Amino acid sequence: MSFTSAGSRWADVYLVAAGRGISICGELLAATTLALVLQSAGHGGFAVAGLLLAATLPIALLAPFSGRLADRADSRTLLVVIGVAQAAICAVLAFATHPVLIVALVAALAAGLSITQPTLAALVPRMVRPADFPKASGIVQSAGQIGMLAAPALAGVLIGQTGQRGPLLIGAVSYLSLVAIGLLLRTRRHGATEKDQQAAAPFRLWDDRTLTVMTIAVASVVAGVSAINVFDIFFVRETLGASTTVYGLVSASWSAGMLLGSPLGSRIPEHRRTVGTVLALLGAACLAVLIGGATAGSAWVLIPFWVAGGFFNGLLNVSTNVLIVSRVRPEAHGRAFSVYGASVQAAGIVGFFVAGPLVEFFDPRVLVAGAGAAGLLAALACVPLIRGEVRSQTRTAPATSMRDEIGDNVAS
């Protein structure tokens, strides 16, 4: 593990948390704004799916490169340079109107995100003592949920008042928070020495059975349920007849649930942080989607189900972060988070490919409920895979099964 030998630097933790919350708000503000603009302009499921695909595909494809870069380059340089570039791209998006140009610029934003995400994730373990990492992870995750909570509602309100330009310019300013983080943080990864790089180079995530099973389980469920990101805008806006403002509130309700769940994730007992717990949380979130999609008669009725799903999602995020950090050597943390994140993003791409055509032919309610059911079935299908691993986790400390390599190649 990569933890400080001195006392925990909580000022740095809160600084990263604030920056993460602001930058995620900007990212989601831009994505929600553009999705609403495309839908309101009469573009169908293919356009919205293409937008979401552009926001995820670069993260999956660039994982081998971005993970190495996060481990080998200076963290301050990465955050400052990428933050400035993303702010400029988002400012250009504010004036873009052609769907192809919008999709291309969103892909460029995602390419920057593929680098900043593992860079920030790898910094947090260096700020705190081992016993404090679950709490620190919960704080950072909670800040991200606050950003996610604010963005959809803010997008719905701003679009109604100013059109697309206002929220996108605000999003451009938010990306500069990464620059502030890079300049103000005392904790800094300077990149591994040549000796460390040679020792870590062959490290593969897939040689750790626990992390492999966890990644497969999460990716399998995400592949089943991710299409809801395309379906829900049509379900809420057209089937349930909600305004853009109400759509923003519904979207924010999932993040509200995550905000409630993330702090509690740090309180999960160590012996309960297993892939079995991860799978149970995944199934619970999908069940909330299934019931909400099948029964909601109005957008307001959907909100408590989305809050419940987000709650389990928040618990899940902290649990997976702790498992990764506890089992991976410090010089490979960037690649570990990059490979895991890319695997999940790649699984989501499967849903985006399927979602576009389905929106054109099926009722959005059926599609939303079906996405929840697909995720739940995927979770149940993974149960045989994790049975042996759950027994192993309850008997063995995480460090004893840590292997020497982390994957440079991902299926995503």
From TrEMBL:
Q: Which residues form the Major facilitator superfamily (MFS) profile domain?
A: 1-189
Show the stretches that span the lipid bilayer. Answer: 12-38, 44-65, 77-96, 102-124, 136-160, 166-185, 211-234, 246-265, 277-297, 303-325, 337-359, 365-386
Transcription regulation found in the keyword field: no
Q: Which UniProt keywords apply?
A: Cell membrane, Membrane, Transmembrane, Transmembrane helix
Q: Where in the cell is it found?
A: Cell membrane
Q: What is this protein called?
A: Predicted arabinose efflux permease, MFS family
Q: Name one GO cellular component term.
A: plasma membrane
Where's it mainly located?
membrane
Q: Which InterPro entries match?
A: MFS, MFS_dom, MFS_trans_sf
